[in-house]
Design goal:
- The structure is a single chain.
- By secondary structure, the protein is α+β, with helices and mostly antiparallel strands.
- Helix 11 packs antiparallel against helix 12 and helix 12 packs parallel to helix 15.
- About 25% of the residues are buried.
- The chain contains 15 helices and 21 strands.
- The strands form five sheets. A five-stranded antiparallel sheet has the order 2-1-5-4-3, with helices on both faces. The chain has a five-stranded antiparallel sheet with strand order 11-10-14-13-12. A five-stranded mixed sheet has the order 16-18-19-21-20, with helices on one face.
- Among the domains are: about 100 residues, Beta-Lactamase (2-Layer Sandwich), CATH 3.30.450; about 90 residues, Helix Hairpins (Orthogonal Bundle); about 150 residues, Heat Shock Protein 90.
């Protein structure tokens, strides 16, 4: 056998494992680094977006200062200082809610007007001589335009911003129009002190001429040096607002991912090293399994050849591909002659015409077991039992067993059954005819006995004739029971609606002749609101047997002998309970009362087959019976009979 040459990669499993480890490690660490950069960029972007939002809010707040001072400077430059300054200032403040106060200063820098005057005691204050205000005021004059100074400590107290617009008259500097905006107002307006804003921290600092910073507001104790920050400036002022992210980037997840990547690289390296080792082992295993499979195949072929049944392998279209020696022997062919023939060549053509081969069922995966009339090479026939199924390759595998002997035995058995059925039928006819022939003279004898009893007064003769009458009645009852048993055995069930009340009434009338029947109290309770369907004749037989037994075995010593009949019908069944307070039975007798010819007492007239017939009738109706009895207290029978309403 030629050996397959393996690539050099598979000859160095350790090298392959190390290379895979390095490759996976590089990929996972690059992904981790890119994730780190993405987190940093996302954080910086969030800060920038917040800065832009704050810048817009601050410009809106300071824009009110700009608009108010511009409006006031326009009035002064064109109409002079208004005598109703307070009213005009009040109007400007009402439309610019973030401004705390408005001021006017003359060309020397002295504040001459202020509104509101409350909490703004700055009249007469010279801003050009104040070390804090001087630089910003001169910058305003130099720029000849609006300028915001601050934040710094205000003369009237607290910290804030002062927005100034220079006043000019005929081209000469004439003073300042100023608007005061307190620092808390700005902080509140831009909502950097909101309790809900925990994502960022803020710091507001004033930029001094020497570029140093004075911090006026800080939302948290933060380190600007270590934090991500973006300075916020406006074109109208000399201050900065730092926005710092409070959220700690999830660098731990990146570290975990990096660690897992390293772990994955190790696992992949080890796995590749292990897998590269497998081809050689797999090749050895394949060779071992090939030897075992060859041995198993040889054993299977040996078993097939030694089988006592014919075994065939055919294509899906029925062409014979393989066959064992027994199969060829059964059909009278050699192995080579059979291979290539079709199933139709070995099946009887007439039978195939009315019972075609079930290829569709076989393709559906079903196992087909059927009997076929086979044709031997010499044209003779035999019956074969064929068990066929489709294998995993789509071919048909069949087992053929010669069933000629079994077929002949079945025919013989069928003939015997027909003969037995005929014999039983003749026996039934004989029993029926004989019973009627026997009952006819018995009826005549009973009639004569009744005539003699009505005419004779001899006590001894009457006693003897009474004994004869009882014996004849017992024989008559026995014949009736035989007829009933025969009918139950051979008559089919005829279902109809059962009227239990009518059946009980008829039964009581039929047994009114029994001794002391008129002394027994009868209680019946029938609840048949649900229609009950069964065999009327067989139900009548059951009631007759139990009622007659209850009358026969009543206790003459009791003052009030009674029989209770309770019947209840449901959609499922009828429950019949027949109870008496008669003689009762001992416990060891309960298992025998349904045996043929068993009698509890020889002193009471009976045939001994009544309860045996009851058992047979219940078996025919698929019912059940239970008996409870106490000696001297009475007996109760409980019958359960299925409701056959669905058969009607």
């Amino acid at each position: 056998m030629l050996k397959t040459k393996q690539p050099s990669f598979f000859k160095k499993p350790l090298t392959a494992g190390v290379l895979v480890f390095i490759l996976v490690c590089i990929i996972t660490q690059v992904i981790s680094y890119q994730r780190f950069q993405l987190l940093q960029k996302t954080e910086q972007q969030e800060v920038n977006e917040r800065v832009l939002s704050l810048k817009e809010d601050l410009q809106n707040v300071l824009g009110q200062s700009f608009m108010a001072t511009k409006t006031l400077s326009f009035i002064v430059e064109n109409y002079g200082i208004p005598h109703d300054f307070d009213r005009i200032a009040q109007l400007l403040l009402s439309s610019n809610k973030n401004i705390e106060a408005l001021e006017l200063a003359n060309s020397q820098g002295v504040i001459t007007h202020v509104y509101p005057s409350r909490d703004n005691d700055v009249l007469g204050f010279n801003i050009l001589q104040d070390s804090i205000s001087r630089y910003a005021a001169l910058t305003t004059v130099k720029r000849k335009d609006y300028f915001t100074a601050g934040p710094f400590h205000l003369k009237q107290g607290g910290a804030g911003f002062v927005g100034r617009t220079p006043l000019f008259s005929a081209g000469d500097f004439a003073g300042f129009a100023s608007a005061i905006v307190r620092l808390p107002t700005i902080i509140s307006a831009v909502q950097i002190d909101s309790l809900s804003d925990t994502q960022f921290s803020y710091q507001l600092a004033k930029i001094n001429p020497d570029q140093s910073e004075d911090v006026f507001y800080r939302s948290n104790e933060i380190s600007i040096k270590d934090a991500i920050k973006v300075p916020l400036t406006t074109s109208q002022g000399e201050w900065k607002l730092y926005v710092i992210s409070n959220q700690t980037p999830p660098y731990s997840t990146i570290l975990i991912f990096s660690f897992l990547g390293l772990l994955l690289a190790i696992v992949c390296g080890v796995l590749v090293w292990f897998l590269v080792l497998q081809p050689y082992r797999l090749n050895q295993l394949v060779q071992e399994k090939t030897v075992l499979l060859r041995e198993s195949n040889n054993k299977f072929k040996s078993l097939v050849e030694q089988a006592s049944d014919g075994i065939f392998l055919t294509s899906p279209k029925g062409v014979i591909l393989e066959v064992n020696s027994k199969g060829a022997e059964m059909l009278g062919y050699t192995l080579n002659e059979l291979i290539g023939l079709t199933l139709k060549d070995i099946y009887d053509s007439e039978e195939v015409r009315y019972n075609p081969i079930k290829f569709k069922e076989l393709k559906a995966g079903k196992v087909i077991l059927h009997e076929r009339k086979m044709i031997r090479k010499d044209g003779s026939h035999f019956y074969g039992e064929v068990n066929a199924k489709m294998d995993l390759n789509g071919n048909l595998l069949g087992v053929l067993r010669d069933s000629t002997e079994r077929k002949e035995a079945e025919k013989s058995l069928e003939a015997q059954n027909l003969e037995l059925t005929k014999t039983n039928s003749e026996l039934d006819s004989f029993v029926y005819s004989a019973s009627h022939e026997l009952r006819a003279p018995l009826s005549s004898v009973l009639g004569l006995i009744n005539i003699i009893l009505s005419e004779q007064n001899n006590p001894n003769l009457v006693f003897q004739i009474n004994m004869m009458e009882k014996s004849i009645k017992r024989l008559d009852d026995f014949i009736k029971d035989i007829i009933t048993y025969s009918r139950n055995k051979h008559l089919e069930i005829e279902v109809r609606n059962i009227k239990f009340s009518n059946l009980i009434k008829i039964s009581l009338e039929n047994f009114s002749y029994l001794e002391n029947a008129n002394k027994i109290n009868m209680h019946s309770n029938v609840n048949d609101k649900v229609d009950f369907v069964s065999d009327n004749k067989r139900i009548s037989i059951l009631l007759n047997n139990f009622i007659s037994n209850a009358i026969k075995y009543h206790d003459v010593s009791k003052d009030s002998p009674s029989i209770w009949i309770n019947i209840e019908t449901t959609k499922k069944e009828a429950i019949i309970k027949i109870k008496d307070n008669g003689l009762g039975m001992e416990e060891e007798q309960l298992d025998k009362i349904f045996d043929m010819f068993y009698r509890i007492s020889s002193q009471i007239m009976g045939t001994g087959i009544g309860l045996f017939i009851v058992k047979e009738v219940l078996a025919k109706l698929k019912g059940s019976i239970e008996v409870e009895s106490v000696l001297g207290a009475g007996t109760m029978f409980t019958l359960k009979i299925p409701n056959e309403s669905d058969r009607k």
